[in-house]
Amino acid sequence: MSNIIIENYKVRDLMSTNVLSVYEGWSIQRLADFFLNHDITGAPVIASDHQLVGVVSVSDIFKFENASDDVKSEALKSCYRDATGIDIANRTDLIEWTKNAQKNCTVHQIMAGQVISVDADQTVSDIAAIMIDKDIHRVFVIENEKIVGVISTSDVLRVLLHSDKKIAQASTI
To answer: What CATH code is carried by the domain that includes residue 101?
Structure first.
């Protein structure tokens, strides 16, 4: 019976329309500060031309921060190569930069390049199935190739809680 009520909810009914984006060129430190200042755990990533290029989350930051120095060094090499077109030749500089990798590496090095998006008219149960299947905590709502909203696992749980309360009220009448 709970599924009947959930099926009545469309993504547009509960998505947040205040979607904050981050730039792929931001340092990982700036990204972490942004997440803390805005009390969010993930965001779409845009390039300097404002095109959507990926998604990044607090989990990506944690993975990077707990990575080995070798992994961080490779990320730094990639960042330097992207910015200058040449490889880092000085090993001493690389070792020193690795100590502050969160300040020297960018969002681009840790983001996921694939953005899972949905249509605003899909049902909440459709979204829950996508989240479970893809093992993700948020999906972005797209209309006319633009992000118009975001729905998180917390949003889905609120619908479930609300549905259960409606069912309980209906059964006491």
So the answer is: 3.10.580.10
